[in-house]
Amino acid sequence: MTMPDAEPADWQPVDWQARANVAARSVTELFGRRLLFLPGTHLAAVQWPSKHLKNLFHPWHYWWQAHYVDCLVDAGRRELGNGATPAARFNGPRHPSAGKLASRLVTGIRLRNAFTFVNNYFDDMAWLALATRRLQGLAEETRKPGRRRNARVHKTLTLQFDSASTDDLGGGTFWSKKRDFKNTPATAPVALYYARTGQQAKAQRLVDWLNAVLFDEAQGLYIDGARLNAAGEVMVENTIYTYNQGPVLGALLELGGDANLARAAVLVDAVAKELTIPGRLVIRGEGGGDGGLFTGILVRYLALAARDERLPERIRATARSLVTDTAEAFWAGRTERDNGALVFSPQPHRAADATYPPGAAVELSTQLQAWMALEAAASLAWPSLTAAAPAAPGPEQAGRQPGRQ
């Protein structure tokens, strides 16, 4: 692993905002559309090219859409930092703001999900809860009252998380309604959600369980999950996924305190050592499908570490390099199709021409991932903007396959 070289004399700062806007326009134009032509709705096709009606026959990827909301909130925060005027919009003054588009997307998610925000996977719901909370914060900052719907989302999903976070296996959060597997993909984002909604005690209990059961001391990383076998013994799934480290890092930073911050520093170092391309501070890719989001999710939370002054400067610098080097790799590997469409590679160290040759269908997850990474890099250039809304203090509220996010 090498650190970045010294900057040449003619070096010019990268305009990460402009790059993030390019990615935002590419994703919304290629994948975004109304749901069944209904006004006031928005939803992303799961692949491009794709027809409107054909989208209904594709598998439903709830959590991809939740990360689409998060990316739009990122763009909305940059619009806010640039004055929140029509001219500041990522796709031009004649289009809706990123925040309005995100709100329409939440409506589309509910309709496409059979008129409910509840589904069979607690991690899916956790990602949407985190995204809609950030959307609510954006609405408040732009002095546009958030829709009452957002409050209903949080009330409904908090009850789901409370039901899934039990003492079975000593703690943690179930992954699905089958309630046979507790893992990092569900426990970490639920812990982060609790921490951001003033439920620190619940969040800390989940983090403590992750540290006790799913933290690999040798690698400094969090493994996948644990289940009970027929004999009643706890069986651990040892696979390590890049994205699982992200929400754990976010929860550690949100909770704060010496122990959590020390563990956050260990985690950043471990990511740099174990999860990067040899010789570079570029986080490895995890392919397509659900894995097409994994690198982007980790980069999002590394950006929080890069900005957190409670961490040692060396750790912050490492986190910053992981963010910017990975985002730069995605940008350098982009390709433009004959019709002008911009496509990013699912593997940051490989060119999009190789991973998505002409004629190949492009997956939404992989394009959201690159957009997410570019937004994370852009957030580091804007001290007044944070990649996540601050925790709101308050009283505690009442209330697929292993490794899939």
TrEMBL record:
Q: Which residues cross the membrane?
A: none
- GO: which molecular function terms? hydrolase activity
Q: Which UniProt keywords apply?
A: Hydrolase
Any Gene Ontology biological process: carbohydrate metabolic process
The record's annotation in InterPro entries points to: 6-hairpin_glycosidase_sf (IPR008928), Glyco_hydro_76 (IPR005198), MUG_Protein (IPR053169)
This protein's superkingdom?
Bacteria
Protein name, please?
A: Glycosyl hydrolase
Q: Record the organism.
A: Pseudarthrobacter psychrotolerans
